[in-house]
């Protein structure tokens, strides 16, 4: 089958094109070739977190691939089948675990059996959703379209530059995705959040909470 060619420099030219292209290729089992990967970034090509996501997907789909290395700007990916199971991967840096989950989750949901994926890396890093967002917002929104068998467990947090975070993603296969129609935003019923600090005094977290409350008060939320 002829590979679908995707230009990674399109739009913002960042890593999201690479991640979602691989995810869709893995779900549809169609081969792809991605060129100009992260061409508009100051350090073009694959970074460790992109490489980790690709390796997880390659193992979950028994894919043939070319160009999977740090710095590569061209990758060919040919998935064969979707399979669940237990997987363990280490980014080796503070690369975002949340962004990796976004790439591998669609494949896990359409795999042949349950999946447990253990990922080591960064849980709370710049330019990526914090892991608390994934657990408390992303997963809950998935339930609205019928995807209810997704569990994200944070066993250890990891920050820039060392990483070292440990997260387990557990999923069960689904048959279909439900439709969702949201036309009106509706009133704000409740606002909640999570503040955390690592190896810092308790008052640091208390100041974060206080500042967040003050900002909400200024916008009329009580």
Q: How would you characterize the overall build of this protein?
A:
There is one protein chain. Helix content is 32%, strand content 19%. Helix 1 packs parallel to helix 3 and helix 2 packs parallel to helix 3. The mean pLDDT is 93. It folds into 2 domains: 180 residues, RNA 3'-terminal phosphate cyclase domain (UDP-n-acetylglucosamine1-carboxyvinyl-transferase, Chain, Alpha-beta prism), CATH 3.65.10.20; 36 residues. Strand 5, helix 3 and strand 6 form a beta-alpha-beta unit. The strands form 2 sheets. It has a 4-stranded mixed sheet, with helices on one face. It has a 4-stranded mixed sheet with strand order 5-6-8-7, covered by helices on one side. It starts with a strand and ends with a helix. The chain has 222 residues and is of the alpha/beta class.
Question: β content, as a range?
Answer: 15-25%
User: Any idea what the shape is?
Assistant: globular
Summed over residues and divided by their number, the pLDDT gives a mean of 93
- The rounded distance between the terminal residues' Cα atoms is 58 Å
CATH superfamily of the largest domain: RNA 3'-terminal phosphate cyclase domain
Q: How many distinct domains?
A: 2
Please outline the helices and strands.
Layout: E1 4-7, H1 15-28, E2 32-35, H2 48-61, E3 64-66, E4 75-78, E5 85-90, H3 97-109, E6 115-121, H4 131-143, E7 150-156, E8 165-171, H5 202-218
Parallel strand pairs: 1-2, 5-6
Antiparallel strand pairs: 2-4, 3-4, 6-8, 7-8
Briefly characterize the structure:
The chain has 222 residues and is α/β, with parallel strands linked by helices.
